[in-house]
Amino acid sequence: MPKEVTDLAEFKELINGDKVIAVDFTAVWCGPCKRIGPKFEEFSKEYPNATFIKVDVDAAEEIAAAYKIQAMPTFKFFKGGEMIGEMVGADESKLKALCESHCK
């Protein structure tokens, strides 16, 4: 199950590590987020080499602002502090493709 992160310092510590971090920027009121959220959780089990986390943009406004989140859901993939992939929207096949290319 993806961990919920609300603290900017913890978020930065996670994404600066050697492991791929897949981030779901979400909101409780967001319909598309509710549809794709369970898939993100499934992928977290399918790709154990990556760490999957969720950031609720309302509970973690500082993180959302720092990473310029404009729409939900937004998925970002990081490794060693660098963003290596990004997707906006709830397209399951595109999210799966990002996981395939970055999380194996």
How are the elements arranged and paired?
Elements: E1 3-4, H1 8-15, E2 20-26, H2 31-46, E3 50-56, H3 61-66, E4 74-79, E5 82-88, H4 92-102
Parallel strand pairs: 1-3, 2-3
Antiparallel strand pairs: 2-4, 4-5
Helix pairs in contact: 2-4
Question: What keywords describe this structure?
Answer:
Glutaredoxin; single chain; 4 helices; five-stranded mixed beta sheet; 104 residues; 39% helix; globular; alpha/beta
The gross shape turns out to be globular
Largest sheet: 5 strands, mixed
H/E series:
EHEHEHEEH
Number of helices: 4
Distance N to C terminus: 18 Å
Text of the CATH class? Alpha Beta
Low-confidence stretches: none
How does CATH name the architecture? 3-Layer(aba) Sandwich
Task: Please indicate the count of domains.
Answer: 1
Find the CATH superfamily. Answer: Glutaredoxin
